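Weekly puzzle thread! Below is a chain. First person to post its structure in token form gets bragging rights.
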Amino acid sequence: TSNGNQTHDALCAVCGYTEHDEACDMVGDVCSKCLYELLSSLQLADGAVYTRTTCATAEELTYTRTFADNDFNCLYVPFEVPVSGFTDCSIYAINMFQQHDMDNDGVVDGVSLEVIKAPAGATIMANHPYLIRYDGKASGVQQTYKFDNVPLAAASTPEYRCSSMNTDYVFRGSYTDDAPSVAEYYTLVEEMDKVVLGTSTNGVGAQRWYMTMTSRDSQFGSASGTSGAKFISIIIAGEDNNVTGIVNTNDNYKD
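Winning reply:
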């Protein structure tokens, strides 16, 4: 193959089709038909293992999940849909962390994760960490959401960094039931409504995200690992007098 506007022929490794394309759209020697498959329908339940290796479009997507209460839940999905499609729910993007010195001794001993509510008309991105909360009366209620012509992504778990001067926070997703490869991580425990310290012996589950916290060797203390915060509280930007700096919410949503 060649780059730029030069013509090239490429043999698809999936179907054996030879594609003639001046735009050089072959990705990993997979033709456009195999790479961007059109599915008539797809049913996906929250927490189900997702292993797709190529992109696709679902003419109809049915997504189900059960809300046990009105606490925050992880939202990490392989599709792009408008937030308005999640009726009776609010979607939140991760905004920033706040570190607290609770006893004024120069050592960080408390951490809060600030989230910001999705604006009207936003579209969530695939393979991106969000939080979702049911706004109605929730007690084991199962919700079914249907979307049309939905772009599906391959199962991918890129890193999303949200760092302070003294601590690196790194978010990753999971589409399997396997435990993360890191020794320590934080994950959202829904019945506690907090992000809680876990270990590699505990899986986070499919369609979930987790976070690692690493000190940047600042002169100030850092609530990192087991020597620091065992859980991280969640606060909503703009509520409870929680005023923050300028926020660009569009960075967390599809253009």
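Puzzle host: Confirmed. Bonus trivia for everyone else. DSSP finds one helix and 16 strands in the chain.
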